């Protein structure tokens, strides 16, 4: 293993003037990865961003936010907020509001919500004090199709959790992307999507299966080097 990379993907369609560039994100990486990604995205006309501001999300994300500053992970940072005040592109918040997310979260069983709240900081502390770059990298793999492990992890007990964190937010992203595609009406437009890598599977399915888009360009970008 030489590091963790993300594939910057460009999709176009013969029936649309819109080009869609996907920037699959991992929330811990080298500062240069985020600088390069954000500078690239700012050259687009529209940027679709993720982000849910909620105390629930703040508790869940302790699993990786507490990594920053760890001596054994020196040089890594948590994904910074997109500097939208410096961008000439139109910024679209393509994620849930706090109220919308917490409505989905309340559908998760009480015991599972409690378990996530307890385990998230424990995972964060373990990663902060014990993880190396190579150990952290092994948990970041995300392919364009679900792995066997992903499929085996599906269960009725965790279905509502996956719905709240992943699938419901996928649907909101698809809706916002659809708004941009439908509003173009044949006009040329470049759309950038900066979202967690796991959500990109739904975007690719929407573009290729329902919108007549195909991949027209790809570039590997390093998120994290091994030391």
Note down, in words, how this protein is organized.
The structure is a single chain. By secondary structure, this protein is an alpha/beta fold. It has one domain (3-225). 44% of the residues lie in helices and 23% in strands. It has 9 helices and 8 strands. The chain has helices spanning 31-41, 55-60, 62-65, 98-105, 110-130, 133-138, 148-152, 156-184, 200-210, and strands at residues 3-13, 16-25, 28-29, 46-49, 77-78, 90-93, 189-196, 214-225. Helix 8 (156-184) packs across helix 9 (200-210).
Low-pLDDT stretches are: none
The total count of helices amounts to 9
Mean pLDDT: 89
Biggest sheet: strand arrangement: 6-4-7-2-1-8
Number of strands: 8
Span of the ends, CA to CA = 11 Å
What's the order of the H and E elements?
EEEHEHHEEHHHHHEHE
Largest sheet: 6 strands, mixed
Structure classification: alpha/beta
Radius of gyration: 18 Å
Strand content: 15-25%
Helix content: 40-55%
Which keywords apply here?
single chain; alpha/beta; globular; six-stranded mixed β-sheet; 227 residues; two-stranded antiparallel sheet
List the helices and strands and how they pair.
Blueprint: E1 3-13, E2 16-25, E3 28-29, H1 31-41, E4 46-49, H2 55-60, H3 62-65, E5 77-78, E6 90-93, H4 98-105, H5 110-130, H6 133-138, H7 148-152, H8 156-184, E7 189-196, H9 200-210, E8 214-225
Outline:
With 227 residues, this protein is of the alpha/beta class. The protein is 44% helix and 23% strand. Helix 8 packs across helix 9.
